[in-house]
TrEMBL record:
Cofactor: record remark: Binds 1 Fe(2+) ion per subunit.
Catalytic activity: L-threonylcarbamoyladenylate + adenosine(37) in tRNA = N(6)-L-threonylcarbamoyladenosine(37) in tRNA + AMP + H(+)
A biological process term (GO) from this entry: tRNA threonylcarbamoyladenosine modification
Keyword Cytoplasm in annotation: yes
Transmembrane intervals: none
GO molecular function list: iron ion binding; tRNA N(6)-L-threonylcarbamoyladenine synthase activity
Top class in the EC scheme: transferase
Broad class of where this protein is predominantly found: cytoplasm
Binding residues for Fe cation: 111, 115, 313
Role summary: Required for the formation of a threonylcarbamoyl group on adenosine at position 37 (t(6)A37) in tRNAs that read codons beginning with adenine. Is involved in the transfer of the threonylcarbamoyl moiety of threonylcarbamoyl-AMP (TC-AMP) to the N6 group of A37, together with TsaE and TsaB. TsaD likely plays a direct catalytic role in this reaction.
Gene Ontology CC annotations of this record: cytoplasm
Pfam hit, one: TsaD
Record's protein name: tRNA N6-adenosine threonylcarbamoyltransferase
Length: 344
């Protein structure tokens, strides 16, 4: 079955054509990063206007790359939540229009779950093997940071999440403080390579470090507001040399990623999951990928790293996941709601 996926929840307009959940015939992304860079974050109305401009060309490009016609599409999937409402609405209106015009099924997709699916695209054998379950997913993006336990029937339970900023947000805000531009993740990843990770002892929220006891209910939760504030004070009223900047960035990245690695490892042992997967934009981070590999090896867990092209926002994860839903008889009507929230 050939499914067209559409993604417009934030600042990328994406379309993908995926056969049977795993065979990606085309995945096209039009990024608005440059447009929003000057504002230090995504402006929802500007994003919506750009999506409107880009959506048809992006779908056309995907069809051309896959060398298929629109009439060969057998289902249309679209991110329906969570995200920025003005941005989501553009993709949702387009998908509904197409579903109605072509009389094909429509599937609304949860962006958060789609990110998890992104780690498994092209690897159906991993999902088919019951011995890999339950799977522990570390979802780390600009909007979310969570630990999720997934059962063989696809049921996903969030066992921990951030109490304040998401990990990507913590990187983006740090980059803004340091004048490094938006988004912060890729530039921090690059600069950190030349810095000393132990130059600064930045706080690692909710880990019990520095003698602060963690309440049992927050064992798998995250908090990144402390590390951001500590970094702000460390650089306040200083002009940093390139090496000093690299040291701040490397220490900051090590503090943020260190917490992710510690908590993912602890959760994999606690929930007895043979597989740890990591997905979402921050999963592109080279330091995180390396440290997670070491941790997974140490505790004897298999690590599934989402390929970088399916870490950041894309529509292949949307179209791929939709195939599983359609196979199990789930589709949505044209009255399908569009929602900003995750739990919808
Ligand atoms: O998944 P995504 O594209 O969008 C959301 O759903 O949020 O994630 C975007 C986030 C941004 O915060 C960006 O700074 C971060 O992913 N990111 C990275 C890297 N590349 C993107 N963070 C750390 N290292 C990277 N290499
Ligand atoms: Zn995303």
């Amino acid at each position: 079955m050939i499914i067209l996926g559409i993604e417009s929840s934030c600042d990328e307009t994406a379309a993908a054509i995926v056969r049977d959940g795993h065979d990606v015939l085309a995945s096209t992304i039009s990024s608005q990063v440059q447009l929003h860079a000057g504002y230090g974050g995504v402006i929802p109305e500007l994003a919506a206007r750009e999506h409107l401009r880009n959506i048809s060309p992006v779908v056309d490009t995907a069809l051309a790359k896959a060398a298929i016609s629109i009439d060969q599409i057998e289902g249309v999937a679209v991110t329906s939540n969570p995200g920025l409402i003005p941005a989501l609405l553009v993709g949702n209106a387009y998908a509904k229009g197409l579903a109605a015009a072509k009389d094909i099924p429509l599937v609304g997709i949860n962006h958060f779950i789609a990110h998890i699916y992104g780690a498994f695209i092209g690897q159906p054998e991993l999902l088919a093997d019951a011995a890999n379950f339950p799977i522990l997913a570390l979802v780390v993006s600009g909007g979310h940071t969570a630990i999720v336990v997934i059962q063989p029937d696809g049921h996903a339970r969030i066992v921990g999440s951030t109490l304040d900023d998401a990990a990507g947000e913590a990187l983006d805000k740090a980059a803004k403080i340091l004048g490094l531009g938006y988004p912060g993740g890729p530039v921090i990843d690059r600069i950190a390579k030349t810095g000393n990770t132990s130059a600064y002892d930045f706080p690692r929220g909710l880990t019990g470090a520095a003698g602060k006891a963690v309440k049992p209910e927050h064992r798998f939760d995250f908090s990144f507001s402390g590390v951001k504030t500590a970094m702000l004070y460390a650089v306040k009223d200083r002009s940093l040399s390139d090496q000093e900047l690299a040291d701040v960035v490397a220490s900051y990245q090590a503090a943020v990623m260190g917490v992710l690695v510690t908590k993912a490892g602890d959760a994999a042992l606690h929930f007895n999951t043979p597989v740890i997967c990591v997905c979402g934009g921050v999963a592109c981070n080279s330091y995180l990928r390396e440290k997670l590999s070491q941790e997974a090896g140490r505790i004897g867990r298999k690590l599934v790293l989402a390929p970088p092209k399916y870490c950041t926002d894309n529509a292949a994860m949307v179209a791929g996941l939709a195939w599983h839903y359609l196979r199990h008889g789930r589709s949505d009507g044209l009255a399908m709601p569009t929602n900003a929230r995750l739990d919808h």
